[in-house]
Amino acid sequence: MTIARTICLGFIATIAVGTILLLMPFSTSSGDWNNLIVALFTSTSAVCVTGLIVVDTGSYFSFWGELIILLLIQIGGLGYMMTTTFLMLLVGKKFDFRQKLAIQESFDRPFLQGSQNLSISILATTLIFEITGVFFLLKSFSANYDFNRSLWLAIFHSISAWNNAGFSLFEDSLVSYQGSILINVVISALIIFGGIGYQVIIEMYLWIVNKIKYKQRFIFSLNFKVVISTTIFLLIFGWLSFYFTEIRNPDTLGNLDFQGKLLAAWFQSVTTRTAGFNTIDLGKMTTAGLFLSIGFMFIGASPSGTGGGIKTTTLRILANSTRSVLRGKDDVIMYQRQVPVSLILKAVAVIFGSALTVIIVTFLISFVEPDIDSIRLFFEAVSAFATVGVSTGITGSLSIISKLILIITMYMGRVGILLLMAAILGDPPPNRIQYPEENLLVG
Questions:
Q1: What are phi and psi of 334, to 5 degrees?
Q2: CA dihedral defined by 83, 427, 387, 265, rounded to 10 degrees?
Q3: pLDDT at residue 112 greater than cutoff 50
């Protein structure tokens, strides 16, 4: 039982428990036993923090069903190993070496010396952002609902946004709050901070403390610089792209005033990168808008964050590698630091594996659903794999086979292609043979 297998099986066990709980009559608003496919799909979507739904969450599930979904979202956002760590901290159990290795594997960072402190910091960061989100969202929802309902809506949407899950208790997601500046800003902030990764947030906190208390020079890590710069670029580029792509479409941005256009375009730029909420009808977007969304979904969030996709760092490594090749250089330099060859190979593997998975999934669903436009099926496949959760509205009408394919796709996207392959293949044997090099034609 390797670390990779422990993590992958842990997610499967969590999905199974969630499915059983959502099957129970107390989970549905009608009081009847739930449909197995609906329960399995919803549990997988929640644990994998995807947000794709086959039924309306707010009307189909009871309060207890919504609470179960919310707990699954929290577990999925933190990750199986972090949730297990949290339970160990509660019962006062000490970390062993295996537990530290598991945390390192989950976050892809060498945190062996301070795993317990890191875990506490991550849990504290999560609670601070989610409680802050509840405070601000409560003010908006209280204008239309009583206190108890407003509080529950604020809690649910704050946790869903921070974990980049995209589950909403409203039938139209957040379309009804399309013009609310507070809702757009708060939800966007939760999505962005949840997606940039815990390491970046903790490093940002250390920089603030150092600036106020010690007033010494603080050197940011390469990961921080790459994540922040890439995220800002993608947000601004996506904002402008969605604005000019959909500005003439009367079904999305066309009939809104200038402020409404800016808000909707901004929110679309934020939520497309693995969040799953929407303030416009995605099913009525232009073909160019759908392709643009697919591209941003595929990129996704950042490492150690709550989002999916190939990650911003992978994109930057491949982009800088391409630039180095075009300039005739043999090394990849980012912010005066040389990127190891192992990281470049890992980035290539992530890109290739992710693209191949999306192509296969799209082909399979297209074969099963020949009457649905291929662009919508492609959109659905990328949304599932990148754990985004936005949809053009076809998820509920898909056949059982297609839903099962999407369930597997969401799981693969959440645990990651490389981690899943490591779990299946096991630890690689040591290689003691060094072969001679030989060139071949490329490109």
A1: -135, 120
A2: 110
A3: no
Angle between helices 341-368 and 417-425 (to 10 degrees): 90
- What residues pair up with 334 in beta bridges, in sequence order? 337
| Nearest in space to 309 (alpha carbons), one of 48, 122, 11, 41 | 48
Q: Give the pLDDT confidence score for residue 111 in this predicted structure.
A: 45
Q: Note the pTM of the prediction, 2 decimals.
A: 0.90
- Report yes or no: 270 and 188 within 8 Å, Cβ to Cβ: yes
The β-bridge partners of 28 are 61
Interatomic CA distance for residues 268 and 280, integer angstroms: 8
For residue 138, the surrounding DSSP H or E stretch is helix 115-141
**Crossing angle for the helix pair 341-368 and 312-326, nearest 10 degrees?**
110
Contact 400, 335 (CB under 8 A): no
Q: Identify whether the C-beta of residue 52 lies closer than 8 Å to the C-beta of residue 38.
A: no
Using CA atoms, how far apart are residues 271 and 281, in angstroms rounded to an integer? Answer: 13
Distance CA 86, CA 123 (A): 8
**What does the domain layout of the chain look like in residue ranges?**
3-401+409-425
